[in-house]
Amino acid sequence: MPGYLPFAGALKLPSFVCDNCGFWQRHFAAPPSCPLCLDARHVVPQDGWRFRPVAEAQAAFPCHWEEVEPGVWKFWNEPVTGIGPSAYLIVTPEGNMGFEGCPVFSDAALDHIAALGGMAVLSASHPHSYGALPQIQDRFDPELCLPAADFTWSAALQVSWPYDDVLEPLPGLSLHRTAGHFDGHAVLHDASRGIVFCGDALKFELNPANPREALTISAHKAFVRGVPLTRAELARYREVFAALDFHQTWTPFEQAANVGRTEVLALIDAMLAGRPHAYPVPVSELT
Predict the structure, then answer these.
(1) How far apart are CA 202 and CA 261, in angstroms?
(2) pTM score
(3) Could you give the CA distance from residue 83 to residue 55 in angstroms, rounded to a whole number?
(4) What domain of life (predicted)?
(5) Residue 34 and residue 103: Cα distance in Å, rounded?
(6) Residue 144 resides in a domain
(7) Contact 102/87 with Cβ under 8 angstroms?
(8) Burial (CB count <10 Å: 0-12, 13-18, 19+), residue 275
(9) Residue 60 domain-assigned (yes or no)
(10) Helix or strand or coil: residue 128?
(11) Are the C-beta atoms of 9 and 117 separated by less than 8 Å?
(12) pLDDT in tens, the chain (287 residues)
C-alpha cells in the first residue's frame, strides 16, 4: 500500500551526496566510496572522494526552477560539480509526477513543489539521474516507480511500485524500459504534450543561439567513455521509440524541441545499418 515502509530503518540514516557524480547514499558516516563512480559507465574522482551532507550540498549548489512548458517545471543546480542532471515535475489533474532528480533540492524548491500540489508519483530514467530523489521521498512520500532491473541501485530509496517493462502510473504518463544504457533504463512518455523524457538513451549538442534546438544526436552505452550500444540494445531502443508518438525529446540536460520520433528512428536505423558507434550525427542528416 502507498506509504507503507516494511523496513524503514535505513531511510532514517543521514544522507550524503557524492561530489563527483551526485549519487546519494544513506550511511551512518561519510561513505568509503561511491558505487556509481566505480561503475564502468563513469570515472572515479581524480582527487579522492568528497561526500557532502545535505545542508552542505544545499549551500554549495543553489537550486533553480522554471516552468519550461505549461505545467512542466524544471529544477536544476547551478553551479554544481559532477553530472548535474535536471529534475522535472509534471502537473496533472490526477496528481503531479516527478521524473529525474537534480543533485540537491533547496528547502525553497521543495516548498515550491508543495505549493504546486506536491508529488503523487516519482520515477527516474536510471541511476545517473536519481540525484536527490531521497529528498522528494522524505518530503512528499510519493509512489516511487522504478524498474525491477535497476533495484540494486535504489538502496537510498524505498521503491513502492516496481515494474518490468511498461507502467502508466498516471493517465497519459507512461514509463517504458529501454534497457541499454542501464539494464533498467526507462523513458517517460507524456502523451498529451508529445514529449519523451529520454534519460541517457540519447545525447544532444544544442545550438548556442537557440538552446531548444539540437544540432547533433547520439546514443551511447557509456557517454564518458564513448562506448557504443550493441545491435540488440539499439533494436530494443527502436522498438520502444517506434511505439511512442512524440515531437520533442528531453534528456536530464537538454530539451530538444526539434527532435521527435522521426529523427530518433532515423538515427537508430542508420546505426543498425552499419557498425554501431557513439559519434554525434547532425540532426540535419536525419530529416
Answers:
(1) 12
(2) 0.95
(3) 19
(4) Bacteria
(5) 15
(6) yes
(7) yes
(8) exposed
(9) yes
(10) helix
(11) no
(12) 444 455 455 668 999 999 999 999 999 999 999 999 999 999 999 999 999 999 999 999 999 999 999 999 999 999 998 899 999 999 999 999 999 999 999 999 999 999 999 999 999 999 999 999 999 999 999 999 999 999 999 999 999 999 999 999 999 999 999 999 999 999 999 999 999 999 999 999 999 999 999 999 999 999 888 999 999 999 999 999 999 999 999 999 999 999 999 999 999 999 999 998 999 999 999 98
Q: Residue for cell digits 519523451?
A: 196
Cα(173)–Cα(16) distance, integer angstroms: 31
Place of cell 566510496: 33
Three-state DSSP class for 206? strand
Going by their DSSP bridges, the two strands 24-26 and 15-18 should be labelled as antiparallel
Asked if residues 176 and 127 have their Cβ atoms less than 8 Å apart, the reply is no
Measured CA to CA, the distance from residue 202 to residue 26 in angstroms comes to 30
CB 54 within 8 A of CB 241: no
**Domain housing 47:** 11-285
Q: Which amino acid is at 269?
A: D
Element (H, E) at 59: helix 54-60
Residue 3 lies in a domain: no
- Measured between alpha carbons, how far apart are the two ends of the chain, in Å? 47
Which CATH number does the domain housing residue 146 bear? Answer: 3.60.15.10
Angle, to 10 degrees, between the axis of helix 261-272 and the axis of helix 231-242?
160
45 in helix, strand or coil?
coil
What amino acid is encoded at 37 in this protein?
C
> Domain total for the chain?
1
Does residue 74 form part of some domain? Answer: yes
